[in-house]
Design a protein that fits this description.
The two termini are about 65 Å apart. Strand 4 and strand 5 form a beta hairpin. The chain contains 21 helices and ten strands. The chain is of the alpha/beta class.
């Protein structure tokens, strides 16, 4: 993890700063206590073993045992504190990410694949979690131990320490080479994990189509290919480790051999004791062991670092629409929605050209037009999912640039082209907009729809399954529609919201809308003649242009495009 990523992610969660410093202090104490051990051994050898003073030796042993007891408590406290810091860190990041994602503009979700965003919340969080649980404490204690051991060897004997560290530049070069290779393979391992996951996901969510086309073997072949690449990347990573670790072992043994070789002469001269030599060997091990441990943890560190970078790429995404605009227009103006010379494009191509129209309070408007004409785009502009590139969309006389996102969400209801239900009961889904205030039973009785739900064994408590998978497409749409109606917003937008309903269900719910919400301004995108005939005015779109806006009779008499659409509907109806 680069320093800036690390620092930035640390700064991001201020609530872990204190516990982190506490944990580091405890770990530091632990390292200090650990460094005492070899000193006691050294003294025990020089003054106890060599002098045959067993009482002295026993005292040193007891001291050593005491340090071990202290070390036990300090280490477990340190591990626990670091673990806690890590876990609360990941929890906080996950929450921040979720909150931020929910605030992003709709077009962010249209540009990015759901699978990838979910991966950010799952696999990247998992890698942060692994790092927090295993990596962080190990890396912190390893670094502290290396630092402590370096000071300790120099305290014992400067000359021998310098000699033993002569090998370090070589170790540094080898580590650099290993790191470069590891980084490369690490990326490809991650890359292929993503591919394996997305191939798996496609295989599961597309299972109906795959089985219907008897495509299992082809799908399996594709999966095998991706899985093989993943194996190859992992093998490369194993190869790197297989070359580097034995090398670490060689440097450790070599530096110990060098120390022993020169120590022999120094002991003969009387400038070094046997005890000091033993202490040196202990400290050298304290130096090399965590180094090996660090290399093991390198993968966890890299993985957490790049996950963090990916998380930042989402956190850096600015929600434009929810930030701009603070106005809450008063609902007293008669002109509810007004498009003024609106031009709009999702990307390069302009999909709405110079569209102008005005909708008054309480009007029921239908939008018609061929596939891809721009009907849903108009709906999305009314919902303030986007702002126009040119011209203006006004709500109660105020520009959509100036009005607050919150106002829009509170005053405009929407039934999208693909109806979506949340996991839970029908009741949960119906009262979604205002669980405290809606008295569902009496509302449904008022609008005469209570019987509609008797078809289910558990009535309103019937579970709809994930995304509403346990009810039919039409039923799903009916519930989604009613949910929007019960939200009682000033403006309601239906995008082909009755396409899956039979005529009877459609008219019963449209009647319900009328009873409940006669004050409401509604915009309905529809293909079916009945729905269109119900509307007071019809907006005719063709190739992104507004080509007519009037009542049915006038349009039928004068508008060529409307006449064509009408004769097509007559054929199917
Ligand atoms: N998110 C998007 N990104 C890029 N282009 C888009 C996007 N959504 C729609 N378009 C394009 O904008 C144009 C208008 O699309 P829109 O969804 O408004 O059509 P529509 O009239 O609702 O069609 P349909 O009857 O099929 O629902 C189309 O050419 C479409 O390809
Ligand atoms: Mg559409």
């Amino acid at each position: 993890m680069k320093e800036n990523t690390f620092l930035r992610s640390f700064k991001l969660v201020p609530e872990v700063h204190r516990p982190f410093f506490f944990a580091s202090m405890v770990a530091m104490v632990g390292t200090g206590v650990r460094m005492i051990g070899p000193q006691l051994i050294s003294r025990g050898i020089d003054n106890g073993v060599m002098q045959y003073d067993y009482q002295y030796l026993l005292v040193q042993c007891l001291f050593y045992f005491l340090t071990l007891v202290v070390l036990y408590f300090v280490t477990s406290k340190a591990l626990l504190s670091i673990g806690l810091v890590g876990e609360s860190y990941v929890k906080s990041i996950r929450e921040k990410l979720f909150r931020h994602m929910s605030s992003l503009d709709i077009n962010y979700f249209e540009k990015n694949k759901t699978g990838v965003l979910v991966a950010r919340m799952t696999s990247d969080m998992q890698s942060l979690n692994e790092f927090a649980r295993e990596g962080a404490s190990s890396i912190l204690t390893s670094l502290l131990t290396i630092f402590g051991a370096t000071i300790a060897v120099f305290l014992v004997d400067v000359q021998l320490s310098l000699l033993s560290f002569l090998i370090l530049p070589l170790l540094g070069i080898a580590t650099k080479i290993f790191r470069n290779h590891a980084d490369k393979t690490y990326w490809s391992v991650r890359e292929w994990i993503g591919q394996v996951l997305s191939s798996l996901q496609e295989g599961i969510s597309g299972v109906r189509i795959i089985q219907a086309y008897a495509d299992e073997s082809k799908q399996l072949k594709r999966f095998k290919e991706v899985n093989n690449e993943h194996l190859k990347a992992n093998m490369q990573s194993a190869k790197n480790i297989a070359i580097y670790f034995p090398f670490l072992e060689i440097t450790r043994v070599t530096s110990i051999a060098v120390v022993i070789w020169f120590a022999a002469a120094r002991i003969e001269q009387g400038t070094l004791t046997v005890g000091e030599l033993v202490a040196l060997l202990f400290y050298l091990n304290y130096f090399f062991d965590p180094l090996i441990q660090l290399s093991f943890n390198y993968d966890l560190l890299r993985s957490a670092g790049s996950s963090m970078k990916k998380v930042f790429s989402i956190l850096d995404e600015e929600p434009v629409l929810s930030k701009t605009g603070t106005l809450s227009p008063k609902l007293d103006s008669n002109s509810v929605i007004k498009f003024e010379n609106v031009e709009f494009s999702y990307g390069r191509e302009t999909v709405l050209h110079d569209v102008s129209f005005s909708i008054d309070r309480g009007e029921k408007i239908a939008i018609v037009g061929e596939t891809g004409a721009g009907k849903s785009t108009i709906a999305k502009l009314i919902l303030r999912f986007y702002l126009p590139n040119k011209g203006d969309v006004k709500f109660y006389g105020e520009s959509s640039k100036d009005i607050s996102q919150k106002w829009a969400r509170k005053n405009i209801a929407y039934v999208p082209q693909e109806s979506f239900l949340f996991r839970g009961s029908i009741r949960d889904n119906l009262i979604y907009s205002n669980p405290e205030k809606i008295d569902l039973k009496s509302e449904l009785e008022n609008i005469g729809l209570i019987d509609w739900f008797e078809r289910y064994e558990d009535g309103l408590e019937q579970d709809v399954g994930e995304r509403g998978a346990n009810v039919s497409a039409g039923e799903r749409q009916f519930i989604a529609l009613l949910r929007a109606v019960l939200a009682r917003r000033q403006i309601i937008v239906f995008d082909e919201a009755t396409a899956n309903l039979d005529i009877e269900s459609e008219s019963s719910i449209l009647d319900a809308t009328d009873t409940l919400l006669d004050y409401q301004t509604s915009v309905v995108i529809a293909h079916r003649l009945e729905t269109i005939l119900n509307a007071e005015k019809i907006l005719v779109m063709s190739e992104g242009k507004l080509v007519g806006f009037d009542n049915h009779e006038t349009l039928l008499a004068n508008n060529e495009i409307y006449q064509q659409l009408f004769s097509a509907w007559n054929l199917v109806n």
